[in-house]
Amino acid sequence: MLGRLAHGELAITGRRRERLLFLMDNGIYVVTVLLFIVFVFLAPYFFTPRNLVNILISASLAGIVTAGYTVAILAGQIDTSTQGVLAVATVTTALLFEELGFSLPMTVLFALLAGIAAGLFNGLIVVNGKIVAFVATLATQGVMLAIALFLSGGQTITIAREGLQEAVFIRVFGIPSSVWIMFFCYIVGYVLLTQTKLGAHIYATGADYRASLLSGVPVDRVIRIALVISALTAALTAVLVTARAKQSAMFGLAIAGSVDFVTALTAVLLGGFSLFGGVGRIERNLVAVMFLTILGNGLQLMNVPTGIILIVRGFALVLAVILSVLRARMT
Amino acid sequence: MASGTPAQRAGSQIAGGDGRSRRKLIIQFLLDNGLFIAFVLELILFAVAAPDLFIRSRTLEAILRLSGPAGIVLASYTITLISGQIDLSTAQVGGMASLMFAAVFQLLEWPLGVALALTVVLSIAVGLLSSYLIKQGIPSFVSTLAVGVVCGGIGFLIINLTKQPGMIRLVRPPLRDIANFEIIGVPFVIPLMFVAYAIGWVVLNQTRFGAHIYAMGGNPAAAALNGINAIRIARIVLVTNAVITGMAGILIAGRQLAAQPGVEGLGQSLTAALFAGVALSGGSGKIERTLIGLLFLSTLTIGLGILNVAAPVRQLIFGSAFVFAILLDSIRQQLASR
Amino acid sequence: MKSKRYLWAALVLALAVTVMTACETQTVEVEVTRVVDVTATPRAVTFHEASAIEEMTAPHQCKPLAALPTEFSQPWRLGFINPNLAHPFFGEWSGAMKTAAEFYGVEFFESDAAGDYSTEPDLLETLLLNDLSIVGAHGPNVYEGLALRALDEGIQFIGIDNGPSEYTPIVYGIPDGIAGMRGAELLVEGVRKRQQEDWAGHELFFIELTHGGIPACVTRTGSAASTFQEAMGLDDDHVLMADLTTGRSAEDMVNDAMTANPDGVFAMIPCWDGLGIGPYNAVAEAGNEAHVMLVTLGGDEPPAKFLKTRPMGYYGFIEFQPYCEGWGWVEVALATLEGLPFETYQVRKAITQETVDQRYAELYESE
């Protein structure tokens, strides 16, 4: 629907086509490695253990959210409510732990439940309301932000109580839990998508809704599950972000320290996904997140002005889009 | 976004028997005019709740003033959306245009006409870039998002290069006098907005170009077979939208006396258009309904302000109104497609 | 014909407009005149005592900024757009303004931008419907537009914390530039102490934590950066920027900046308290707490609570004393309306780890 102009065929055949396809499929690996090498020479202290950990932490927070986002995209659902879920979950975490004195497991449990509830709400509007996910989640995000605003009173909640950061953000072999959680999410995502029936259903639903419906795929349930997974990973990210900063990541209506719609979308496109669902591999997405993180990290190390960083980001998105479309036209 | 997720699933659930056709007609009528009925109800509600403050010409003027420049953009945005193009770059294009204008007019002190002309050229370039990307097969939704990020970057770059504190103050006369120029006692933007909607209505409903826009938005493949040049229409629509957005950005900056990288009010265009029942997939939507939707939202802002409703509740009311609007619209479409 | 429906719609709309206008002509006599007569001498002979106000504002003990009469020449109506009622800092303003208006016996109207400054022009339109005598706002982005819009309606505008404007002669509150300067002065004090101890011989950097999209932030942290730079004799390469508009989190940007200079020590001033506390905690988590020193601006309950836990590198904050600031705004507004002299709001309290316990007890544990 969004890409009706995008389905012209490219008339490239034979070995050249295969080579091109191979390059496109694996291009993100090549580009990421090249970027890494460029920064090793350009940015001071880029290639140091400490900075590599920095990159991993930064990538992990963006990566977890993108993993869930990817599943939704594969099922053909563009979820624009990520910020809303983040807001609700970060406020829940801070409020329960600091103000209401909940124990740590209960706090985390309720924060994740808040994410699941948000995902179910999205599913309700998309499936039962029969509304395109892009529009539906744009609408539900407004409601979620209102709830978060109501709960937090718009203020940042500082967590002075000990125990959240220390327990949630633990380092194993010098690498924080968020990184391990990210890898875990991608392994689970990989297995789910490639080894299970649900995964096959997700691909099928995203590729052709009607055909899947006719061939007996429980499409509505698949869409609901995909939206819940997307919201759940956003809630998980919110817990980690809150624990790391020891404060809720909401200031007024602005969500700080999180992943915005543009970043997630860029990562998904760079990873070779089609916005129209049904195409893409989750492990490539992980590399795409790394690419974006390395870009941001390297430019920061070089202390580049804001305007330039934004322009570079914009062109990364353009590049991602061109790749995605070329690929769609060749297959 | 699977091919036609909601539309094609439509229908089967909502059944209307033969004997109940009259009831069905009433429901159809209510759904078709839902927004207008809601608007009237809203006016009555606020009039009852706060008669002293609400029922005054001054309140009416405040509501219209609020609809102002962003309302004009919304008119062209509606047409863009009907033609099947989703423009996500409005906030940044408006911001970049106002900054460009401010840099040339305020900082370099060039004449007003030159500054305006330069901004128009820049806006046209943005529209052309978006439509070029679309021509390459990239969905408008993504290409305008990317163009938006680049425009935001250029906006910040202008600020960085001119060493301004996050905005450019825009106080050089006679800009504000122009921005606030009054016709029959109201700022000219208000009548201009109604004129914009009237022009939009004529273009969409009385011209061949309008018919092409609907055709292209509704079924591009069929439109192409009928010899409609989709790229040309997309180009015209996007360039027009970018230019109007740029001008609105300058007007808003002129009224606020400051140009900034993003113009929040303009970024709401998509939400407002969807609220008014313009389909994201293109091909359907009515510009007169957009106008009612716009007035509904402005009245809600002013009304809730008069009643002094707490901010979270205000946010919740706006959020739920959006959810209800799209739900009602979905039901309406399902009924209509039967 | 579908367009017929909209013809009806237009007719009904026109009818509504006519009714509204008709009602307006009826209410026009009751409208309060908004003419500000500054030459009129106040009829009252008695003035409020300063001690009464200090008592009234306990535990903050605000000093009155103007001696105001017990009876005013007109029933003034004040209006204020609060940037975010739910935020403790601005919430204090609101409470103080309401109490002060009641104390002085004038009407006070308030609306709430809920943290979204872009709505302030809209909220002003609504607020103006209350036939105000004077209006104010905390509008760092758009205050000049607000001031001029109020002038259009013949109403004076008194901003708060905005700095100078071409459209209002009155600068009230904490100008962002000065706020940043005060923060830098406190930070210089802290850094100099540390340089006598474990920071001796380390290369010093300043990190400006800001939001490029908020002009007030750019001014505030920019002035902090230049003050600090000058006091400590840093060159431009040692002043680093972490700007939220790049789309990256403050935590990541600070970690990256510190990584780029592994032997350096870092002094930071954020635009608001939370923007500094988050990265501080992330740095501590990464095990580099000893290399960073933070001074924040604002100083309401959350940072005070955090400072009480004695974080190693959180030297302190500049407390803007929101309650007294809000109270003083009402006094300045009334003095302006009555044509009386007033003083500028000056109290700036620097709170450090030594003083925070006492201050916290005064402000938040007194009841």
Automatic annotation (TrEMBL), chain A:
It comes from Caldilineaceae bacterium SB0661_bin_32. Its main location: membrane. It holds the Pfam family BPD_transp_2. This is ABC transporter permease. It is found in: Cell membrane. The keyword Nucleotide-binding does not apply. The keyword Membrane applies. It is a multi-pass membrane protein. One of its GO terms (molecular function) is transmembrane transporter activity. InterPro entries: ABC_transp_permease. It comes from the Bacteria. Keywords: Cell membrane, Membrane, Transmembrane, Transmembrane helix. One of its GO terms (cellular component) is plasma membrane. The chain crosses the membrane at residues 20-47, 53-74, 103-124, 131-152, 172-193, 222-243, 249-273, 308-326.
TrEMBL record, chain B:
Its main location: membrane. The chain crosses the membrane at residues 29-50, 62-82, 89-108, 114-134, 141-161, 181-204, 233-253, 265-283, 290-307. The keyword Transport applies. Coiled coil: none annotated. It is a multi-pass membrane protein. GO terms for cellular component: plasma membrane. It holds the Pfam family BPD_transp_2. One of its GO terms (molecular function) is transmembrane transporter activity. It is found in: Cell membrane. Keywords: Cell inner membrane, Cell membrane, Membrane, Transmembrane, Transmembrane helix, Transport. It comes from the Bacteria. This is Autoinducer 2 import system permease protein LsrD. The lineage of its organism: Bacteria, Bacillati, Chloroflexota, Caldilineae, Caldilineales.
From TrEMBL, chain C:
Residues 1-22 form the signal peptide. InterPro entries: Peripla_BP_I. It comes from the Bacteria. PROSITE patterns: PROKAR_LIPOPROTEIN (PS51257). Keywords: Signal. This is Sugar ABC transporter substrate-binding protein. It comes from Caldilineaceae bacterium SB0661_bin_32.
